[in-house]
């Protein structure tokens, strides 16, 4: 487990950018965590220790910052990495799931053969941040529809006031390192 001091070090390494990408939004900028080797290392060591026990087959990361944490962790655990991308980015045949936005909807996609034909593959889903939970819930549905078993959804940050974690908990266990009230 991370102690409070380590959590604070990781949290302090993430920068708030006000009014990005639009007025009223506080954007959580993880680039300042990534370029701080001590804090980033602390986070990744913690995730490796936690997920060593999970007997994972794959880690699926959400476009785009989930790719950074997910692929690093996949290599540390010696399991495969699977990108879950925004619509239209993946070159091979895909399965897709749509989800509602405040206005309209969006889609996430995964390659049909992402789990290399392994039925019941144990998959960890990872992203930097959960807000409304719409993206991650669609990603869990995608994994489960592709005959994978999403064993947990992991986020570095969770915006508690948007209650996205509750939405995802209906589909899979959720682990959020730092909750923001
Ligand atoms: P949601 O589907 O509402 O849970 O949105 C989650 C996705 O949007 C994640 O991939 C996040 O990286 C991104 N996101 C949403 N809100 C923020 C924020 N305030 N700061 C940084 N990223 C965000």
Structure description:
This protein has a single domain, classed as Rossmann fold (3-Layer(aba) Sandwich). It is 33% helix and 35% strand. The chain is built from six helices and nine strands, in the order αββααβαββββαβαβ. The protein has a seven-stranded mixed beta sheet, sandwiched between helices. Strand 5 and strand 6 form a beta hairpin. The chain is globular, with a radius of gyration of 16 Å. The chain starts with a helix and ends with a strand. The mean pLDDT is 97. The chain binds adenosine monophosphate (AMP). Adenosine monophosphate binds next to strand 2, strand 7 and helix 5.
Explain the layout of strands and helices.
Layout: H1 4-12, E1 15-18, E2 26-29, H2 31-34, H3 37-51, E3 58-62, H4 65-77, E4 80-86, E5 94-100, E6 105-111, E7 121-130, H5 134-145, E8 148-159, H6 164-169, E9 174-180
Helix pairs in contact: 1-3, 3-4
Adenosine monophosphate binds next to strand 2, strand 7 and helix 5.
